[in-house]
Amino acid sequence: xxxxxxxxxxxxxxxxxLIGKVTVEVTTSDIDMDGFHTQKPMDVDVMxxxxxxxxxxxxxxxxxxxxxxxxxxxxxxDDGDFTYNDFKPYLREISSLTEEECDKLFExxxxxxxxxxxxxxxDINVIRLLTERGKDFYEIAEAIDYLNSIHIDYRxxxxxxxxxxxxxxxxxx
Length: 173
Fold this sequence. Notes:
Layout lengths: L1 H12 L5 E13 L5 E15 L5 E5 L5 H12 L9 E4 L7 H10 L9 E6 L2 E5 L6 H13 L14 E2 L8
Parallel strand pairs: 4-7
Antiparallel strand pairs: 1-2, 1-4, 2-3, 5-6
């Protein structure tokens, strides 16, 4: 069940430049007893570029990776060696929402902060919509799209161990 949650989450966030971590095997300069270079696992930050229905992903190395490593990471990605289970996204906690982002969310949901409708944010890592008049699905869908675009973890992916907390400034908004 959790795997389906991850696949759904990655698919819905793909268009927004989702950054995550994959572990790749990197050749070292050390030689083993048979005369071959040894390999070691290395965590690399990448941007998800594609996910298909079978769960295979493609990604690109982020700036900061060496040129050689970027080439190999691209090759591994193109070879289809990775699935969504190999990718752990970086997401922002709800508590990291700025005042401007909260205002934008109120605007999308057509909520008057001073009126009867309101939105409660940062309550036990949940965004709770309390409204007397209800909300149309298109407003809620637009709000979800907005939260995806700013990489907010509204589904407790970090708490469930399916995502990493994004370092401050990772997603320059």
